[in-house]
Specification:
It is a single chain. The chain contains 3 helices and no strands. It has one domain (2-68). The two termini are 28 Å apart. α2 packs antiparallel against α3. The protein has helices spanning 2-10, 15-32, 38-68. The protein is mostly helical.
Length: 72
């Protein structure tokens, strides 16, 4: 919630910034609170892998946008 308030006070920005920060928050929080039951750990691991892949796609698109001016 603090991320949303901070970003909305900062000004208009793209959805990719919100998604990236939420993904990073998720990964940090699961690292901090990692001793889960084995079933819960599997679910958070898969979720983390999927979110990390989305994060990498966002970063790759931003790099392409900066280097060659390609935008979606």
């Amino acid at each position: 919630m603090l991320t949303t308030v901070t970003l909305s006070a900062y000004g208009p920005s793209g959805l990719d910034l919100y998604a990236s920060l939420y993904i990073l928050e998720y990964l940090i929080l699961t690292l901090l609170y990692s001793p889960f039951s084995p079933r819960t750990q599997k679910i958070t691991d898969v979720t983390g892998y999927v979110l990390f892949a989305i994060f990498l796609i966002i970063v790759a698109l931003k790099v392409l946008e900066i280097l060659i001016g390609f935008t979606l």
